[in-house]
Description:
By secondary structure, the protein is α/β, with parallel strands linked by helices. The protein contains seven helices and eight strands, in the order ααββαβαββαβαβαβ. Keywords: Methyltransferase, S-adenosyl-L-methionine, Transferase, tRNA processing.
Amino acid sequence: MSSSTIEVNPYVRKIHEFPETILVPGEDGRFALFPQLRSDMPVVVEIGSGSGNHMIQYLTRMPRCQYFGYELRYKRLYRTAQKLAEAKQQGYVVQCFAQKMPEHFAPASIDTLIINFPDPWAKLKQRKNRIMAPQNLKIFHSLLKPGGVVEFKSDHHEYFLRARENLLDSGFAVEAYTLNLHGSAYSADNIITEFERMFLHKVPKRIGWLRARKVG
Ligand SMILES: C[S@@+](CC[C@H](N)C(=O)[O-])C[C@H]1O[C@@H](n2cnc3c(N)ncnc32)[C@H](O)[C@@H]1O
Protein backbone atom coordinates (compact mmCIF):
# COMPACT_ATOMS: atom_id res chain seq x y z
CA MET A 1 0.00 0.00 0.00
CA SER A 2 1.65 3.27 -1.10
CA SER A 3 1.58 6.35 1.17
CA SER A 4 -0.43 8.27 -1.48
CA THR A 5 -3.22 5.64 -1.37
CA ILE A 6 -3.42 6.07 2.40
CA GLU A 7 -3.63 9.87 2.03
CA VAL A 8 -6.51 9.78 -0.46
CA ASN A 9 -8.44 7.04 1.33
CA PRO A 10 -8.68 7.61 5.11
CA TYR A 11 -10.33 4.21 5.55
CA VAL A 12 -7.05 2.47 4.79
CA ARG A 13 -5.97 3.61 8.26
CA LYS A 14 -9.38 3.61 9.91
CA ILE A 15 -9.98 -0.12 9.39
CA HIS A 16 -7.32 -0.71 12.08
CA GLU A 17 -9.77 0.73 14.65
CA PHE A 18 -11.51 -2.67 14.61
CA PRO A 19 -8.65 -5.19 14.82
CA GLU A 20 -10.89 -7.94 16.19
CA THR A 21 -13.44 -7.62 13.38
CA ILE A 22 -11.55 -6.48 10.28
CA LEU A 23 -8.84 -8.96 9.35
CA VAL A 24 -6.10 -7.25 7.35
CA PRO A 25 -3.19 -9.07 5.72
CA GLY A 26 0.39 -8.14 6.50
CA GLU A 27 2.87 -6.95 3.89
CA ASP A 28 3.48 -10.58 2.91
CA GLY A 29 -0.25 -11.06 2.22
CA ARG A 30 -0.67 -13.40 5.20
CA PHE A 31 -3.02 -13.06 8.17
CA ALA A 32 -1.26 -13.30 11.52
CA LEU A 33 -4.50 -13.68 13.45
CA PHE A 34 -7.02 -15.65 11.42
CA PRO A 35 -9.59 -17.00 13.94
CA GLN A 36 -9.63 -20.69 14.80
CA LEU A 37 -12.94 -22.23 13.76
CA ARG A 38 -15.17 -23.80 16.40
CA SER A 39 -16.63 -27.17 15.54
CA ASP A 40 -19.97 -26.53 17.28
CA MET A 41 -21.19 -23.60 15.13
CA PRO A 42 -21.79 -23.46 11.35
CA VAL A 43 -19.35 -21.52 9.20
CA VAL A 44 -20.87 -18.99 6.79
CA VAL A 45 -18.76 -17.09 4.25
CA GLU A 46 -20.03 -14.20 2.16
CA ILE A 47 -18.04 -13.08 -0.88
CA GLY A 48 -18.20 -9.36 -1.62
CA SER A 49 -19.96 -8.51 1.65
CA GLY A 50 -20.19 -4.79 0.79
CA SER A 51 -21.21 -2.60 3.72
CA GLY A 52 -22.51 -5.52 5.74
CA ASN A 53 -26.32 -5.36 5.52
CA HIS A 54 -26.61 -9.02 4.66
CA MET A 55 -24.21 -10.02 7.41
CA ILE A 56 -26.04 -8.04 10.08
CA GLN A 57 -29.49 -9.35 9.11
CA TYR A 58 -28.24 -12.91 8.81
CA LEU A 59 -26.64 -12.75 12.26
CA THR A 60 -29.85 -11.31 13.70
CA ARG A 61 -31.69 -14.37 12.41
CA MET A 62 -28.94 -16.83 13.22
CA PRO A 63 -26.60 -15.49 15.91
CA ARG A 64 -24.94 -18.84 16.54
CA CYS A 65 -22.78 -19.02 13.44
CA GLN A 66 -19.25 -18.03 12.47
CA TYR A 67 -19.72 -15.46 9.72
CA PHE A 68 -16.86 -14.21 7.52
CA GLY A 69 -17.29 -11.57 4.81
CA TYR A 70 -14.64 -11.13 2.14
CA GLU A 71 -14.50 -7.57 0.85
CA LEU A 72 -11.89 -5.47 -0.92
CA ARG A 73 -13.12 -1.93 -0.30
CA TYR A 74 -11.91 -0.22 2.85
CA LYS A 75 -14.89 2.03 3.52
CA ARG A 76 -17.29 -0.89 3.16
CA LEU A 77 -15.20 -2.96 5.58
CA TYR A 78 -15.23 -0.10 8.07
CA ARG A 79 -19.00 0.41 7.78
CA THR A 80 -19.55 -3.30 8.35
CA ALA A 81 -17.43 -3.25 11.51
CA GLN A 82 -19.32 -0.19 12.79
CA LYS A 83 -22.67 -1.91 12.19
CA LEU A 84 -21.52 -5.09 13.91
CA ALA A 85 -20.38 -3.07 16.93
CA GLU A 86 -23.68 -1.13 17.08
CA ALA A 87 -25.69 -4.35 16.83
CA LYS A 88 -23.36 -6.04 19.38
CA GLN A 89 -22.84 -8.89 16.95
CA GLN A 90 -19.79 -11.04 16.37
CA GLY A 91 -18.58 -11.47 12.79
CA TYR A 92 -15.43 -10.97 10.74
CA VAL A 93 -14.60 -9.17 7.52
CA VAL A 94 -11.50 -10.14 5.61
CA GLN A 95 -9.70 -7.59 3.45
CA CYS A 96 -8.55 -9.68 0.53
CA PHE A 97 -9.66 -11.45 -2.64
CA ALA A 98 -12.04 -14.29 -1.81
CA GLN A 99 -10.03 -16.51 -4.16
CA LYS A 100 -7.51 -16.72 -1.27
CA MET A 101 -9.98 -18.59 0.93
CA PRO A 102 -8.03 -21.89 0.68
CA GLU A 103 -5.22 -20.19 2.64
CA HIS A 104 -7.68 -19.55 5.49
CA PHE A 105 -10.08 -22.49 5.48
CA ALA A 106 -9.40 -26.22 5.45
CA PRO A 107 -11.08 -28.39 2.81
CA ALA A 108 -14.67 -29.31 3.75
CA SER A 109 -14.91 -26.73 6.54
CA ILE A 110 -17.57 -24.26 5.28
CA ASP A 111 -21.33 -24.82 5.62
CA THR A 112 -22.70 -21.96 3.52
CA LEU A 113 -21.25 -19.65 0.87
CA ILE A 114 -23.20 -16.52 -0.03
CA ILE A 115 -22.60 -14.41 -3.14
CA ASN A 116 -24.88 -11.42 -3.66
CA PHE A 117 -24.64 -9.26 -6.79
CA PRO A 118 -21.03 -9.92 -7.71
CA ASP A 119 -19.42 -7.69 -10.32
CA PRO A 120 -20.85 -9.02 -13.62
CA TRP A 121 -17.73 -8.76 -15.82
CA ALA A 122 -20.16 -8.63 -18.72
CA LYS A 123 -17.80 -8.51 -21.70
CA LEU A 124 -16.86 -11.84 -23.21
CA LYS A 125 -13.13 -11.34 -22.58
CA GLN A 126 -13.75 -10.45 -18.91
CA ARG A 127 -15.88 -13.46 -18.00
CA LYS A 128 -12.93 -15.44 -16.70
CA ASN A 129 -12.81 -12.88 -13.84
CA ARG A 130 -16.26 -13.78 -12.58
CA ILE A 131 -16.49 -15.10 -9.07
CA MET A 132 -18.89 -17.79 -10.36
CA ALA A 133 -16.41 -18.90 -13.06
CA PRO A 134 -15.58 -22.65 -13.09
CA GLN A 135 -12.12 -22.25 -11.54
CA ASN A 136 -13.66 -20.53 -8.49
CA LEU A 137 -16.53 -23.01 -8.20
CA LYS A 138 -13.89 -25.72 -7.95
CA ILE A 139 -12.45 -23.90 -4.93
CA PHE A 140 -15.92 -23.48 -3.38
CA HIS A 141 -16.66 -27.16 -3.90
CA SER A 142 -13.47 -28.22 -2.12
CA LEU A 143 -14.04 -25.85 0.83
CA LEU A 144 -17.69 -26.73 1.42
CA LYS A 145 -18.64 -29.54 3.76
CA PRO A 146 -20.53 -32.46 2.20
CA GLY A 147 -24.06 -31.12 1.66
CA GLY A 148 -22.85 -27.53 2.03
CA VAL A 149 -24.69 -24.84 0.07
CA VAL A 150 -24.04 -21.89 -2.21
CA GLU A 151 -26.61 -19.09 -2.26
CA PHE A 152 -26.29 -16.71 -5.18
CA LYS A 153 -28.27 -13.77 -6.53
CA SER A 154 -27.72 -11.41 -9.42
CA ASP A 155 -29.62 -8.89 -11.51
CA HIS A 156 -27.45 -9.77 -14.53
CA HIS A 157 -29.57 -12.30 -16.39
CA GLU A 158 -26.87 -13.81 -18.59
CA TYR A 159 -24.45 -14.14 -15.64
CA PHE A 160 -27.13 -15.74 -13.49
CA LEU A 161 -27.97 -18.38 -16.11
CA ARG A 162 -24.30 -19.07 -16.82
CA ALA A 163 -23.54 -19.42 -13.11
CA ARG A 164 -26.34 -21.97 -12.79
CA GLU A 165 -24.86 -24.00 -15.65
CA ASN A 166 -21.39 -23.76 -14.14
CA LEU A 167 -22.68 -24.98 -10.76
CA LEU A 168 -24.36 -27.99 -12.38
CA ASP A 169 -21.07 -28.81 -14.14
CA SER A 170 -19.06 -28.44 -10.91
CA GLY A 171 -20.61 -31.01 -8.56
CA PHE A 172 -23.63 -29.04 -7.31
CA ALA A 173 -27.37 -29.70 -7.47
CA VAL A 174 -29.53 -26.59 -7.86
CA GLU A 175 -32.33 -27.20 -5.36
CA ALA A 176 -34.10 -23.82 -5.39
CA TYR A 177 -34.22 -21.33 -8.22
CA THR A 178 -36.12 -18.30 -9.48
CA LEU A 179 -35.60 -15.71 -12.20
CA ASN A 180 -37.75 -13.21 -10.33
CA LEU A 181 -36.90 -13.29 -6.63
CA HIS A 182 -39.23 -10.47 -5.60
CA GLY A 183 -42.13 -12.05 -7.48
CA SER A 184 -41.55 -15.48 -5.92
CA ALA A 185 -42.29 -17.26 -2.66
CA TYR A 186 -38.55 -17.09 -1.87
CA SER A 187 -38.82 -13.34 -1.26
CA ALA A 188 -40.31 -14.04 2.18
CA ASP A 189 -36.89 -15.15 3.47
CA ASN A 190 -34.84 -12.78 1.34
CA ILE A 191 -32.39 -10.37 2.98
CA ILE A 192 -32.21 -7.16 0.97
CA THR A 193 -28.63 -6.03 0.36
CA GLU A 194 -27.39 -2.48 -0.26
CA PHE A 195 -27.26 -3.10 -4.01
CA GLU A 196 -30.67 -4.67 -4.07
CA ARG A 197 -32.16 -1.69 -2.25
CA MET A 198 -30.80 0.58 -5.00
CA PHE A 199 -32.66 -1.41 -7.67
CA LEU A 200 -35.86 -1.43 -5.68
CA HIS A 201 -35.78 2.35 -5.43
CA LYS A 202 -34.75 2.96 -9.05
CA VAL A 203 -35.73 0.99 -12.15
CA PRO A 204 -37.08 -2.32 -10.87
CA LYS A 205 -34.94 -5.16 -12.15
CA ARG A 206 -35.65 -8.85 -12.04
CA ILE A 207 -33.28 -10.61 -9.71
CA GLY A 208 -32.25 -14.24 -10.13
CA TRP A 209 -31.69 -16.23 -6.95
CA LEU A 210 -30.66 -19.82 -6.40
CA ARG A 211 -29.51 -22.24 -3.75
CA ALA A 212 -27.18 -25.05 -4.85
CA ARG A 213 -25.98 -27.99 -2.75
CA LYS A 214 -22.68 -29.77 -2.99
CA VAL A 215 -23.33 -33.32 -4.17
CA GLY A 216 -20.11 -34.61 -5.67
C1 LIG B 1 -21.59 -5.15 -6.68
S1 LIG B 1 -20.95 -5.14 -5.08
C2 LIG B 1 -22.20 -6.00 -4.11
C3 LIG B 1 -22.05 -5.78 -2.63
C4 LIG B 1 -23.08 -6.53 -1.75
N1 LIG B 1 -22.96 -7.96 -1.92
C5 LIG B 1 -24.49 -6.09 -2.02
O1 LIG B 1 -25.25 -6.87 -2.61
O2 LIG B 1 -24.83 -4.95 -1.68
C6 LIG B 1 -19.68 -6.35 -5.21
C7 LIG B 1 -18.72 -6.28 -4.04
O3 LIG B 1 -17.79 -7.36 -4.16
C8 LIG B 1 -16.50 -6.90 -3.80
N2 LIG B 1 -15.58 -7.81 -4.51
C9 LIG B 1 -15.40 -7.89 -5.85
N3 LIG B 1 -14.54 -8.88 -6.15
C10 LIG B 1 -14.19 -9.46 -4.97
C11 LIG B 1 -13.32 -10.54 -4.62
N4 LIG B 1 -12.67 -11.23 -5.56
N5 LIG B 1 -13.19 -10.86 -3.32
C12 LIG B 1 -13.86 -10.15 -2.37
N6 LIG B 1 -14.70 -9.12 -2.64
C13 LIG B 1 -14.85 -8.78 -3.92
C14 LIG B 1 -16.47 -5.46 -4.26
O4 LIG B 1 -15.53 -4.69 -3.55
C15 LIG B 1 -17.91 -5.00 -3.99
O5 LIG B 1 -18.06 -4.42 -2.73
